Amino acid sequence: TPLVNEEQPIHPLYAYLYVADKYEGLILVNAATLLDGDPLNNFLSRALTYNPDGILSEANNITIAGTHAIITTSKELVILNINDPLRPFVEKRIGSPLLKNPRSVAIQFRYAFVVDDEGLKVIDITRLNDKPDEVQVVDNALVPLPEAKDVYVARTYAYVAAGKDGLAIVDVERPDKPRLEQMFNAGGVLNDAHQVKVAMTNASLFAYVADGHNGLRILQLTDPETMPSYAGFSPRPAPRLIASFKTKGEALAISKPLDRDRAADESGNQISVFGRRGARPFNLLETMRLMRTEGGAGAFFTVTDKPATKPLDFKISATGKEPEDEAEAVTNLSQPPRIYKNKLAQLSALGLFMALVIALKMRQRRASKI
User: Fold this and answer.
1) In whole angstroms, what is the distance from residue 275 CA to residue 258 CA?
2) What is the DSSP string of 29-53?
3) Is the dihedral of CA 87, 93, 95, 100 positive or negative?
């Protein structure tokens, strides 16, 4: 009898590879044969070609976000629904004058980041899963980069392969107000950047750049030996060129490494097996219940930097009890109340006692078996 992990079914869309083709549009390749356990059946085959009325002609880039494929062409950005991967359909098209010759798109949370002839632009995709017609370009969210060819987003920074200008690092902590953080060209040698991917090794962050006629370039973005802030959530990159590899031809693209510890996709589909049998991440509806009113169908919860009321005073007495008056209140919180210290000591003693009891019982069981 085969072992059952009790994970949720993997969505059928993950049985295919998705190819953006300049002439044929979207091509689906059946790759499920690589996972069927039969070593004699490791063959790939075309499952679908999709290009209705030629809208996907001149396709140059594709990104999968849950049950959506987002494709850029020389004319526009096209969002396809691939919930039924062999029956895709168009949900949204964004073209000129908002986007001019878009050529790459990256997705992170509620936003898509696109590069076109004018530079880096931002698209609000908050309602992509339930109201795709509301997907729209964010007004005035533009970082001029006329040589931009590709974009990769990692936490609060977008990395743009900017052709002869090298690598552009854009601060997107506030996605609706992106700003250029810095340009880097390694003293002029990084001058044909076509594509970039970012990944971590141990405690360091690296950018891998397909630098055209120069080949592969590797940049170290953070370094625990030289950056005191390297362990932060999103430390400011300090790029330096650490390695180059000359390719036989021009380096035009580079693959993305595996996303580690990624539990679910943008549509809530489980994409990895958890360590505990039957464990699973929240699905899309459960996630929306955390983020929106009316059981996940209403408005999104938001916060403001300018609250309507003042924060309440936080005061603790020396005894850990509610202070009877203002004079008794202690404002110096550097020393925890004694009552908490006593409780901590009691809990520690209880934990030690339980550990001794368990160890004694295990010893008795071993003795009885002998």
Assistant:
1) 18
2) EE-GGGGSS-GGG---EEEEEE-GG
3) negative
- DSSP element (H, E) containing 201: strand 195-201
- Distance between CA 21 and CA 256 in Å, rounded? 19
Alpha helices for the chain (secondary structure H): 284-291, 338-369
What pLDDT does residue 87 have? 98
Exposed e or buried b for every residue in 101-128, given b needs 16+ CB within 10 A? bbbbbbbbeebbbbbbebbbbbbbbeeb
> Could you tell me which residues come within 8 angstroms of residue 169 by beta carbon, excluding any fewer than 6 positions away?
157, 158, 159, 160, 180, 181, 182, 183, 184, 237, 239
* Bridge partners for 82 per DSSP: none
Taking only Cα atoms into account, the Rg of the chain, rounded to an integer number of angstroms, comes to 27
Task: Tokens for 368, please give them.
Answer: 């009885």
Asked whether 297 and 285 are in contact (CB, 8 A), the reply is no
pTM of the predicted structure, to 2 decimals: 0.81
Please tell me what DSSP assigns to residue 147.
T
Using alpha carbons, select from 119, 118, 196, 109 the residue that is nearest to residue 161: 196
Highest mean pLDDT among 182-186, 271-275, 341-345, 359-363: 182-186
Report the alpha-carbon distance of residue 111 to residue 121 in Å, rounded: 10
For residue 327, is pLDDT > 80? no
Q: Per residue, what are the HEC states of 109-136?
A: CCEEEEEECCEEEEEECCCCCCCHHHCE
Strand order in the sheet with 195-201: 195-201, 204-210, 216-220, 240-245
Question: Hunting for tokens 């060129």 — which residue is that?
Answer: 241
Tokens of 138: 């964010």
Q: Which of 142-151, 179-188, 290-299 has the lowest mean pLDDT?
A: 290-299
Can you say how many angstroms the Cα of residue 77 is from the centroid of all Cα atoms in its chain? Answer: 20
Tell me which H or E stretch contains 20: strand 16-21
Q: Using one digit for the tens of pLDDT, what is the confidence trace for 176-210?
A: 999 999 999 999 999 999 999 999 988 899 999 99
Nearest to 253 by CA among 170, 364, 357, 152: 152
155-164, 230-239, 358-367: range with lowest mean pLDDT: 358-367
How does residue 114 score in pLDDT terms, banded at 50, 70 and 90? very high
Q: What is the mean pLDDT of the chain?
A: 89
